[in-house]
């Protein structure tokens, strides 16, 4: 009931929860069983490519719509495919730094091949008869990021990817206009700690708690290059306290921009 009311309130403000988007979207290679609704965290990512530079965006929420993080950084990728892989690599790394390892993760991307490749890897890891993803199918230039994504898939309790409409992807504006959304990188960071072990029966019992301070670097323009270091944001501990009682949804909303009226979520 509470989750439903939250979804209504968020809808009134023009923002659907990632869970709602995930549940309404196809998951290539995987049907939607009831367990679909038992994700602990949802990660939406997007990468943009432009000749004069692009960006990477990520949004992380819990199943009830509580926002954990938003990331928006400039990046120069050789093409859009590589940008999408970089963005997913980034989003999964940030989640891994802030959440328990045995969580159930829902990934939202607006790239058909990436969603299918991720789910293919998930199925190959759980079924010896499922043919593993051919490394040669990964876009050239994204091999290192695919290795990082695979490592994250193996490290979480379970994961599946949904293919969403790019017009509904809340990470889209973050990736396409990082200069407009730089403020989201400086929010005090949160993690969501369950008050009892994570199981499919206890996912509704979560509380927002302080986490070790893992702030983004001051150098936001450092590129997310192809390295085996997973986190482009170079999370580090600086000992700051966290304000977990404030709701930053309102002041996270940027002023009207060129994304309004174009079908893009203004978040």
Features:
single chain, Nucleotidyltransferase, domain 5, alpha/beta, RNaseH-like_sf, disordered C terminus, nucleic acid binding, 7 helices, 267 residues, five-stranded mixed beta sheet, RNaseH_sf
Structure characterization notes:
Residues 206-219 have a biased composition (Low complexity). Residues 195-267 are annotated as: Disordered. The chain contains seven helices and nine strands, in the order ααβββαβααβαββββα. The protein has a single domain, classed as Ribonuclease H-like superfamily/Ribonuclease H (Nucleotidyltransferase, domain 5, 2-Layer Sandwich), CATH 3.30.420. It is an alpha/beta fold and 267 residues long. Helix 4 packs across helix 5.
